[in-house]
Each structure stands twice: as C-alpha cells, then as structure tokens.
C-alpha cells in the first residue's frame, strides 16, 4: 500500500497472447481512430484515501454498481498522448509529464484525488513497453488514453470516495478519415455561434468527459453539414474564438500566427504549447490574443487571414478548408488547401515526435 513506485507496479499476463492478431491490419490508413484497443491495460484503485498497487493485465469490462457516481454525476476525466516508433526501432512518448500535470489539474477541478506523476508516467511506460508490437509504423502511432472514474455507489451529490484509474492504448492513424496519415490535409469546420461549450468559472480548461458530451449534439449537426469539427465561441456573448470540440485553433493573420489565450474556458493543449515554442524557431511570428470572430471572418473573406489549423494530440495539425456558418454561409480559408506555414509546422512537429529531427526542447521521452 501507499504511494506507488515503478517497482511496485505488478505485471501479470502470463499465458495470454498479447501479440496483435494476424488478421489485424496495423497500417495507419486502415485503422479507424479509436476503434481497436490493445489487450492490456494499466489500472490502479484509489480506496480508503490512498492509491493501491498498480497492475498491468489484460483489460476487462468494468463492473459498476448502477448507483456509481460516475454514471450519475459524470465524475470522469481523461488524457490523451501518443507513443511513436523512432527510426532506430526504439519507442518514445511526447511530453508525458505535461499530461500527468494536466490530469492532476483536471482531477482537482473535478474533486478527484491527485495521481502521483510517477504512477501516471511509469504505468504508461510499462504498458507501452509490454505492447510494442501494437505500435503502427510511422506515420501511425499508439494513442494512449489514461482515464479516471468515480466508482462509489451513492446517489448523493458529492465526490466519490473510490476511484479507478486505468490506461488503455489504441493503434491509430489519422484522426480525420478524410486526411491521410502523415499528410497535411484540410477539413470543413462548423462555427457554433449559439451552442456553447464552456462557461466562465466552469470546466473548460479541464479534460473532463462532461465537456465532450455537451458538444455531441452540435458535432452531430455539423457532420450532417459535411463538417469534421466544430469551433466554439465564448459562451458569454463576446463572440471571441475559443477552441474546437477536441483541439485548439490557430490562424495566420498577415505574417503572424495567432491563437486564443488560456482564459480558463479552453484546454491548455500540449500541441498548442509546443507550436507556441516551435514557431519562433522556424522564423514564424506567433502571438496569443483575444480573437473576435466577426473580425476574423472578415479577415478570412478579405484574404488577410490566409491559413487556419486545428491542433491536438489526435488531430496533430490539420488545416481548415472553410468555416461553415449557422446562417448557411461558408467562408473558404485561402484556397482551401493547407498553406505553407501550416505545412512547415506540421513537418517540424512530426519530425521531432518521430525522432527524425533534433529535439532541442527535450520533449521526446524514451519508453
Ligand atoms: N482542446 C480540447 C477540447 C481537446 O480535447 C484537446 C485534445 O486533447 C485539445 C484541445 C488539444 O490538446 P493536446 O494538444 O494536449 O492534445
Ligand atoms: C486528444 O487529442 O488526445 C483528445 O483527447 C481529443 C479527442 C477528440 C480524441
């Protein structure tokens, strides 16, 4: 009992064949994002005020009491990161300590227990290590989904006293089926002017499942209009751009890349942070600033805003072809193709992630 260290993670899958089945095609363009889960998970229970030993074992379905708090009051949080195959055959993670910190930021907001960072990172490392064969070759990667749920059965509105933390891993290619893995591409984006995602003082800067369920209705509507994602404005009527349902957003205005600041209502994306640090090293000016949607739209229409892209672990960097408006209008960004600045950042970021370029920031962590 007590704080978990790498040495007290149990590993037990003796007698279980954890190799990918022979009929599973792991080529990244054959994988639907998030569909295939590798056989092992890392899990740890929090009971009686402390984390118990962590274990790597074949994942199983979870037995929950029908009154479990997660099922009623959505005490569920998660993270997302990836493992990449390097040119020398080794495997690396990208900035996992940022995910560990963000998970704890989210946990605090959702009244959930702090997770020792080494439990998060060591558990993920060991889990990936046991399932190296599940990592698709570049341009694919292994998507890692750490998750925590409140499991105590109680209908009273309060925080659970018991939690399950688990990590599953999923071989993945491109997030957007219309964008081939390892290539830049563009998608149409619906602008949600009336449906909000996060309120001031709410949970917009936390990675809580509840933030995503409130976007599903508008995402469904957007898909019917042929859009792959939704971009949200603030929910207090100022018409400032915030972020997308599952990624942050950047715009190239003149010669400067701009992105909304972290006001508390949007997620502090690790890809966003990496772009803010990487861009100046590539000679690209970058600035965090409040972006008024109506001014931005005018800029898109006039050509002053010539590129736009979404960024996130799953989406990497994906160009925006056009913005589809609630009034039925559509504004194309540039010529609708991925622009040169988007391309440059995509190449630079991926080259670091896949060990094809020097990593001056120390972002790449070997498994
Ligand atoms: N914003 C939201 C709402 C997200 O779900 C994500 C994805 O994790 C991001 C932004 C991008 O964050 P990151 O770059 O850390 O994946
Ligand atoms: C990620 O990029 O890791 C996310 O969690 C976003 C989700 C839409 C897949």
Descriptive terms for the model:
binds 2-OXO-4-methylpentanoic acid; 2 domains; 367 residues; binds pyridoxal-5'-phosphate; nine-stranded mixed beta sheet; disordered N terminus; D-amino Acid Aminotransferase, Chain A, domain 2; D-amino Acid Aminotransferase, Chain A, domain 1; alpha+beta
What helical percentage do the residues reach? 10-25%
- Radius of gyration over alpha carbons? 21 Å
Total beta-strand segments: 19
State the shape.
globular
CATH architecture of the largest domain: Alpha-Beta Barrel
Number of helices: 8
Notes on the protein architecture:
The chain has 367 residues and is of the alpha+beta class. It has helices spanning 69-73, 96-109, 117-130, 209-213, 216-224, 270-281, 293-302, 340-353; strands at residues 9-11, 40-47, 50-51, 54-58, 76-78, 81-85, 91-94, 141-150, 163-172, 186-192, 229-233, 241-244, 248-253, 256-259, 285-288, 305-312, 316-324, 330-332, 364-366. Strands 1, 2, 3, 4, 5, 6, 7, 8, 9 and 19 form a ten-stranded mixed sheet that branches. Strands 10, 11, 12, 13, 14, 15, 16, 17 and 18 form a nine-stranded mixed sheet that branches. A hairpin with a 2-residue loop joins strand 2 and strand 3 (50-51). Helix 2 (96-109) crosses helix 3. The longest helix has 14 residues, at 96-109. Mean pLDDT is 96; it is low at 1-5. The chain binds pyridoxal-5'-phosphate and 2-OXO-4-methylpentanoic acid.
Furnish the topology, listing elements before pairings.
Elements: E1 9-11, E2 40-47, E3 50-51, E4 54-58, H1 69-73, E5 76-78, E6 81-85, E7 91-94, H2 96-109, H3 117-130, E8 141-150, E9 163-172, E10 186-192, H4 209-213, H5 216-224, E11 229-233, E12 241-244, E13 248-253, E14 256-259, H6 270-281, E15 285-288, H7 293-302, E16 305-312, E17 316-324, E18 330-332, H8 340-353, E19 364-366
Parallel strand pairs: 1-4, 10-11, 10-17, 14-15
Antiparallel strand pairs: 2-3, 2-4, 2-9, 5-8, 6-7, 6-8, 7-19, 8-9, 11-12, 13-14, 13-16, 16-17, 17-18
Helix pairs in contact: 2-3
The protein binds pyridoxal-5'-phosphate and 2-OXO-4-methylpentanoic acid.
């Amino acid at each position: 009992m007590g704080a978990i260290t790498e040495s007290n993670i149990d590993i037990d899958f003796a007698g279980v064949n954890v190799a990918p089945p022979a009929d599973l095609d792991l080529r990244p363009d054959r994988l639907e994002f998030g569909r295939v889960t590798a056989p092992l998970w890392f899990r740890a229970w929090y009971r009686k005020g402390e984390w118990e030993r962590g274990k790597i074992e074949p994942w199983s379905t979870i037995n929950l009491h029908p009154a479990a708090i997660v099922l009623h009051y959505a005490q569920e949080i998660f993270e997302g990161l990836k493992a990449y195959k390097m040119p020398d055959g080794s495997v690396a993670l990208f900035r996992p300590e940022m995910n560990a910190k963000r998970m704890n930021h989210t946990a605090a907001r959702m009244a959930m227990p702090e997770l020792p960072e080494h439990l998060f990172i060591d558990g993920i490392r060991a889990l990936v290590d046991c399932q190296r064969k599940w990592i698709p070759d570049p341009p694919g990667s292994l998507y890692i989904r750490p998750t925590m749920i409140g499991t105590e059965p109680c209908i009273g509105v309060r925080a659970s006293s018991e939690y399950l933390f688990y990590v599953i891993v999923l071989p993945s290619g491109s997030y957007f089926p219309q964008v081939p893995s390892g290539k830049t591409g563009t998608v149409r984006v619906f602008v949600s002017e009336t449906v909000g995602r996060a309120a001031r003082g709410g949970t917009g800067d936390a990675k809580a499942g509840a933030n995503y369920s409130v976007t599903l209705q508008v995402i469904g509507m957007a898909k019917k209009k042929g859009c792959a994602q939704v971009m949200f404005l603030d929910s207090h009527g100022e018409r400032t751009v915030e972020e997308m349902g599952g990624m942050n957003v950047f715009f190239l205005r003149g010669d400067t890349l701009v992105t909304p600041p972290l006001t508390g209502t949007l997620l502090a994306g690790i890809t966003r942070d990496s772009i803010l640090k990487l861009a100046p090293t590539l000679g690209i000016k970058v600035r965090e600033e409040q972006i008024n949607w109506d001014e931005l739209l005018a800029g898109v229409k006039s050509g002053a805003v010539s590129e736009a892209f979404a960024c996130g672990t799953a989406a990497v960097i994906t160009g925006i072809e056009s913005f589809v408006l609630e009034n039925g209008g559509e504004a194309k960004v540039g010529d609708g193709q991925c622009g040169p600045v988007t391309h440059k950042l995509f190449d630079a970021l991926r080259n670091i992630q896949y060990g094809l370029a020097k990593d001056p920031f120390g972002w790449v962590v070997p498994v």
